[in-house]
Amino acid sequence: MTTPTPRVDGRTARSERTRNAIVDAHVTLITDGDMRPTADRIAKLAGVSLRALWSHFADMEALMTASAQRILERRDAAHRPISPDLPLAERIDRYCRQRAKLNDLVGPAARAAALKEPFSPALQRYRKLHVERARDEVAALFADVIADDQELLDAITVVSMWNMWDTLRTPMELTSETAAAILHRTVSALLTKH
Predict the structure, then answer these.
(1) What is the spatial distance between Cα 96 and Cα 113, in angstroms, rounded to a whole number?
(2) With the CA atoms of 118, 124, 127 and 129 taken in that order, what torsion angle do they form, in degrees rounded to the nearest 10?
(3) How many Å apart are CA 82 and CA 174, to the nearest integer?
């Protein structure tokens, strides 16, 4: 006997598609450099009315929250675990290459979020979550070197985050490859000469 496939209400499916289209449009605009997309631009790109946008999101804070979640999901999908059993030099190399890729991936959204973060409890929570996850990764990946040295853990976490990456890439105008080399040099120095 086969289990019947549950029926999906057409209105629910359409509503979910509309909601996803709005979030995707918001993320696309931000990724393309529109740091403060208006509801009009978001709705137009999503192919929905303003009324539909506001029926799915109470305000821009709610939309930013959904978009931040989407960015974290993309970051998670791009993340590849690194074995802590690898030799230290190889772990550092893989970690720095991956951080470079992930920082470039989240960069536009992080820039847009930075404009609103001081006024957005949701964005503040997502940033804290992102930092905690990065810190946990560093702690697990380099546990044999860090041990209980919290300053070293914090130092590696900070230099690996988007803020430093953005300084290298934006005002200093360095290529991703050069910024990755600087990240690698910094993390290597911290882990091998502490």
Answers:
(1) 24
(2) 170
(3) 26
As a whole number, mean pLDDT of residues 147-158 equals 97
| CA 149 to each of CA 21, 96, 152, 194: distance values in angstroms, whole numbers, following the listed order | 45, 20, 5, 10
Architecture of domain 10-57: Orthogonal Bundle (1.10)
If residue 130 lies in a helix (H) or strand (E), which one and from where to where? helix 121-141
Residue 87 pLDDT: 97
pLDDT grade, residue 113 (50/70/90)?
A: confident
Q: Looking at residue 117, what is its pLDDT? A: 85
Record the pTM. 0.80
CA–CA dist 151, 4 (Å, integer): 56
| All structural domains of the chain with their residue ranges | 10-57, 67-192
The reported pLDDT for the residue numbered 5 is 61
Please tell me the distance from the alpha carbon of residue 54 to that of residue 112, in angstroms, as a whole number: 21
- Tokens coding 181: 């080399």
Cα separation of 95 and 14, whole Å?
41
